[in-house]
Amino acid sequence: MKVFRNNELMLEQSVVTIGAFDGIHRGHQALIERAVNRAKELAVPSVVYTFNPPPRAFFQNQMVLTNVGEKISFIKKMKVDYVIIADFNEHYASRSPEAFLQELKVLNPQEAWVGPDFNFGKGKRGTAADLSAMFQTFTHPPIKCSKGETISSTRIRNLLCKQEAQLANELLGRNLFKKIL
Ligand SMILES: Cc1cc2nc3c(=O)[nH]c(=O)nc-3n(C[C@H](O)[C@H](O)[C@H](O)COP(=O)(O)O)c2cc1C
Ligand SMILES: Nc1ncnc2c1ncn2[C@@H]1O[C@H](COP(=O)(O)OP(=O)(O)OP(=O)(O)O)[C@@H](O)[C@H]1O
């Protein structure tokens, strides 16, 4: 797997998935796996486009579940061809949805894969519908836990605050956090 910053990579074809992917929980894993499988079927490279720090850490000072190094090594295990790590700062976050779509164009995505409630661009104005106006876009159904609730990084952060490491690990699909005694 090759690692790039944004604006460094150009591809003739690709399948792209986009998101903060903090923790790479079971929902993220399902989405990335789907994108990788589609890329294999189409015989084109797979790309994970992500951000450092995660936007919620930047804007809301929220806890980071996996630092950028951990995130890259986990994505690598999922047989992704390229990962793009965009420096998420004030300048980057002020870019419009249209500017972000222009940036994605150089990856020539045959397909873009996102999950439920995906948004992008200044003020979170861009939606999956905007993405689909430019690229063939697919929305992965939400992956839920055994209780039927959608898995999210926010939920995992809340569980860790309540010291429920075991349940957090269940949603992550791996033992990332140790039980605090
Ligand atoms: C160019 C760009 C600008 C963004 N600007 C903002 C912003 O102003 N406020 C915000 O809360 N998030 C902003 N974000 C983050 C998105 O809301 C969102 O977190 C990101 O696209 C990842 O999607 P996900 O949270 O579903 O993983 C921006 C994202 C991009 C790509
Ligand atoms: N449970 C899930 N099932 C399928 N896709 C998901 C799930 N959770 C997030 N995604 C998708 O994964 C990508 C990255 O999402 P993101 O990092 O915002 O996850 P999140 O768990 O919703 O995070 P947060 O709670 O911090 O908002 C997005 O395209 C998002 O729609």
Overview of this structure, please?
Helix 7 packs antiparallel against helix 8. The strands form two sheets. The chain has a six-stranded parallel β-sheet, with helices on both faces. The chain has a two-stranded antiparallel sheet with strand order 6-7. The protein has one domain (2-141): Rossmann fold. It has eight helices and eight strands, in the order E-E-H-E-H-H-E-H-H-E-E-E-H-E-H-H. 39% of the residues lie in helices and 19% in strands. It is globular. It binds flavin mononucleotide and adenosine-5'-triphosphate (ATP). Residues 19-20, 55, 59, 92-93, 95, 100, 118-124 line the site of flavin mononucleotide. Its EC number is 2.7.7.2. It holds the Pfam family FAD_syn. InterPro entries: FAD_synthase, Riboflavin_kinase, Rossmann-like_a/b/a_fold.
Task: Please render the helix and strand layout as text.
Blueprint: E1 2-5, E2 14-18, H1 26-42, E3 46-52, H2 55-60, H3 68-77, E4 82-87, H4 90-93, H5 97-105, E5 109-114, E6 119-120, E7 126-127, H6 128-134, E8 137-139, H7 153-161, H8 165-172
Parallel strand pairs: 1-4, 2-3, 2-5, 3-4, 5-8
Antiparallel strand pairs: 6-7
Flavin mononucleotide (FMN) binds next to helix 2, helix 4 and strand 6.
How would you classify the quaternary structure?
Answer: single chain
What class do helices, strands and sheet pairing give?
alpha/beta
Mean pLDDT: 96
Rg: 16 Å
CATH C-level class: Alpha Beta
**Superfamily at the CATH H level?**
HUPs
Name the poorly predicted regions: none
